[in-house]
Amino acid sequence: MNTTNPFDEIEQFLGRSPFSGERTWGRDLRTADIDVAEYDDEFVVVADLPGFDRDGIDVRTDDGRLTIAAERDAEREDADRRYLRRERRHESVTRTVELPATVRPEDATATYRHGVLTVAIPLDALDTDEGHRIDVN
Q1: pTM of the model as a whole
Q2: Does 62 or 26 have the greater pLDDT score?
């Protein structure tokens, strides 16, 4: 009687064979966890990208969207090592956010520190017809 472990089935479904750490298909593509905030003067997106090098991160604005993409490769195989499990591999992360119509993407800034990417895009001041209040003395 051949019994299977339900966790082995989950690992196979996810493309991993139990304890081997090898994928049954090419890359692992997932999304980055983000926070999005809109302030009076800027639109800010903060993305968790731990373990990525600054050179492997691509941030673009196009057609009303902000796209963050990052890639990294695991260290090369070492013939002298005898791996019991190997999970570190090539990884791609991507995330797209719709931008408000009032952003100025040409003035956007991006910083990457301690695995956290922060993108700040200035907002145009909204034209208001509220006028100006004049104090009465």
Answers
A1: 0.64
A2: 62
